[in-house]
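Quick question, first post here. What does this chain look like in 3D?
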Amino acid sequence: MKNKSILIFTILYLISILLVSCKSTSVRDYSNDEEVYLNALKLFNDKDYREALQLFDVILLQYPASKYADDAQYHIAEINYIEEKYVLAAFNYQKLMRNYPASDYVKISFYKSALCNYYLSPSYDRDQKYTRDAIKSFQDFQMVYPGDSLSVESDKKIQELRNKLANREYFTAELYKKIDSPISSIIYYDEVIKNYPDTKFYEPSFYGKIQTLYEIGKYEQLKSLIQLYKSKFPSSSNYSKVLEIEKQIAAK
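> Answer (accepted):
Ran it through. Tokens below.
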């Protein structure tokens, strides 16, 4: 009885392997590259990405010199992108740019490769490697396509990412301030002041540095910094507080 059960299981297993094999080979049963591509594109448009990916791979493997090769490469990257596999998508967009430099897909692949890094960029309190990679990618895109409408979109993304980097430095400065490490706090405020004057953390870092210098009694340094603050941020909500600090210094 036991042997009979094993035999039945083995037969069923072999049948399932045969069916899978037939299915996998059927996707390759096309007469030419155009037929493969058109079927792949239909599957892609129908959102059957797994089957479409197989056919796009067929083009690259069996018809590497095909006029549809760059189309296949681009749609492979697009499937990765749609499925939010951004590391793999960036690799495949860059592969298209490298292998098919004359392709009509180069510009959009360049931009979407940068977008992959943008979506991989984590919150400000995490490691910011992908944030910096995204900024560089968008800047590289702008150098190659300076007048393109996507360069304007790149500007928006760069600004958002720079704010994130500034936020990280400002957050660190505030953290050191809370744990009573004023010198370290000033170092990080200075990072924002020096490197991120175009971000929303520029003024708060100026004010944070003024506060910290006042708390540790660095009054001589404060005098020139306060004058600079007053000239830069006359409309700031912290302006009256800075005037009060200036008043306190004058009274000492």
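The chain has a mean pLDDT of 91.
The radius of gyration is 29 Å.
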